[in-house]
Amino acid sequence: MLTARHTLIYVLLMTLVVVASNILVQYPLQAQLAGINLADILTWGAFTYPVAFLITDLTNRQFGPKAARKVVFAGFVVGVALSFFTAQPRIAIASGSAYLAGQLLDISVFNRLRRMAWWRAPLFGSLIGSMLDTLIFFSFAFAPFFVFFGPNDPFAIEWAPILGAFSTSAPRWISWAIGDFSVKVTVGLVMLLPYGALMNMLKPMPQAPTA
């Protein structure tokens, strides 16, 4: 009963992050950094979405990977439902696929490293999961090869200077992916602070499975 109640808390937190990210992805980040117009490559959703990895890792630490997968699948259902209501089908497919693959990889990596130094499992789990998440989302959503998911976005595949600041050019979606992954890495490092603060309070349950 205790496990179910606490897992429900994680499910609600994951749902909150997914809902917030789906809303905030509509708002570009109005700022400049080193000559880069961040509004061209980032939205506020890029900053909230990586918190999902913290929730997954805390669930995994306390209750094991089986409970963590349940939390991830709950977020997947909510995320896909919201995406199909608020975005084109191709974006919804990309979003759902990226979230599920990235989070499940995070769980697998975390579980392999959980007995090492306390920071390794959450850090490498989130970074490797984020890398896969970014690769799948931006490829499925914008790469011309995946046109069978839906029509290509002419603006996304148009070539432009990388990050709007370098002489080398690439399709715009490449710059979007670079900016998104950079934020995920940054937030992943910052999330070590709340993880470290909470790990002594949220100790692994004796019955938590490890596979």
Automatic annotation (TrEMBL):
Entry keywords, A to Z: Cell inner membrane, Cell membrane, Membrane, Transmembrane, Transmembrane helix, Transport
Membrane topology: Multi-pass membrane protein
Main location: membrane
Subcellular localization: Cell inner membrane
Origin: domain of life: Bacteria
GO MF annotations, alphabetized: transmembrane transporter activity
Sequence intervals crossing the membrane: 7-27, 33-55, 67-85, 91-111, 123-149, 173-195
GO cellular component: plasma membrane
Pfam families, A to Z: Vut_1
PANTHER family to which the protein is assigned, alphabetical: QUEUOSINE PRECURSOR TRANSPORTER, QUEUOSINE PRECURSOR TRANSPORTER-RELATED
Function: Involved in the import of queuosine (Q) precursors, required for Q precursor salvage.
Family: Belongs to the vitamin uptake transporter (VUT/ECF) (TC 2.A.88) family. Q precursor transporter subfamily.
Name the UniProt record assigns to this protein: Probable queuosine precursor transporter
Organism: Rhizobium lusitanum
